[in-house]
């Protein structure tokens, strides 16, 4: 926590680093959790899992006074569609990579950890390759919206105490104040702390 707010850390490769750009999923989460939790970006372009593990203790020092309430780890396929289309060739065939990810996901579920299955979520669209990605690897705004939707779904369904879904979390300084906005009538104040009218998507 930081100043009473839970701390959520986004940790991963370029898909995380770019998540605050061009309608990215990190920026969307920061907006959704405004006044509820702090979203901390720890993305490193070009990294793979081995590189991330190498610095894990520096990114998340065990003796730190500030510990995250939630860590979202996102390492997509450095050997995904983009590797095939670029001619670079993946480290393993795509089907094998996906199979390995599924095995890891099953192990995580056995440990009562939550998993977001973006592969199947995105393939619900027939045009998912062009609609969800900018280059076959990095997410478009549409792809980012799917990421956010799936993350929120998992957080809503998780039986965690306290619940980390944004609607279940208190809003910081949400109490009424004589310094709130004055209504058009001029005889009362309006508390705007829960307003979400600025959002294009009504996140659930």
From TrEMBL:
Every SGNH hydrolase-type esterase domain range: 10-111
Listed GO MF terms: hydrolase activity, acting on ester bonds
* Family matches, as PANTHER family: GDSL ESTERASE_LIPASE CPRD49 (PTHR14209:SF9), ISOAMYL ACETATE-HYDROLYZING ESTERASE 1 (PTHR14209)
* Domain of life per record: Eukaryota
In Swiss-Prot or TrEMBL terms, this protein is called: SGNH hydrolase-type esterase domain-containing protein
**Signal peptide per UniProt:** none
The portions of this protein that span the membrane are: none
Which CDD domains has this protein been placed in?
Isoamyl_acetate_hydrolase_like
